[in-house]
């Protein structure tokens, strides 16, 4: 016999099937975490070890050494890691080795909207060559209408003979750009 929760209604007892009432666990917001120089991977690994959901966007960069060219995965936003956590339970985040601060206004951490993190994730998963880009405040906002980036919004730029979409994380004042075909662009 399985035990199920019951509600008492006056003198009668009504069994409740928990399968009928799915409980959705609330997701905490994303926050930007400022790290010490070159400590992004260590901080992200520590967060994951503590059970937090974190995101460290990486891209491939070609570096020219004196005798050869090396391809390395480097952070898309140097000095930053993204993490979901409860603002009121931030002590384990702040005491992680390599963490400098939580990005925010004054002493108050400021959450980063989910759609900005999702846009960066989609750009990286698209397979297109992504690279860091200076943060932009002005420019035409566009939306991609077809392909792997369908629905992603950003700012359209032209760099030499190629068209690029710039997706920004406003809280960090950082951006990432990806080469696109202007045929797939619509104004948002």
Which helices and strands occur, and which strands form pairs?
Blueprint: E1 6-9, E2 12-15, E3 30-35, H1 40-49, E4 53-55, E5 58-64, E6 69-75, E7 80-84, H2 91-94, E8 99-102, E9 104-105, E10 108-109, H3 114-125, E11 130-133, E12 141-144, E13 153-159, E14 162-169, E15 174-180, E16 185-187
Antiparallel strand pairs: 1-2, 3-7, 3-8, 4-7, 5-6, 9-10, 11-15, 12-13, 12-16, 13-14, 14-15
The stretches of 5 or more residues where confidence is low (pLDDT under 50) are none
Rg over CA atoms, rounded to whole Å, is: 22 Å
Summarize the biggest pleated sheet. Answer: 6 strands, antiparallel
**CATH homologous group name of the largest domain:** NusG, N-terminal domain
Number of domains: 2
The geometry reads as: globular
Can you count the beta strands?
A: 16
Strand order of the largest sheet: 11-15-14-13-12-16
CATH architecture of the largest domain: 2-Layer Sandwich
Coarse structural class: mainly beta
Q: For the terminal residues, how far apart are their CA atoms?
A: 57 Å
Query: Strand percentage, roughly?
Result: 35-45%
Using the coordinates shown, work out and report the CATH topology of the largest domain. Answer: Alpha-Beta Plaits
Assign a percent range to the helix content.
10-25%
Separate helix tally: 3
CATH class type of the largest domain:
Alpha Beta
Mean pLDDT: 85
Output the helix-strand order. EEEHEEEEHEEEHEEEEEE
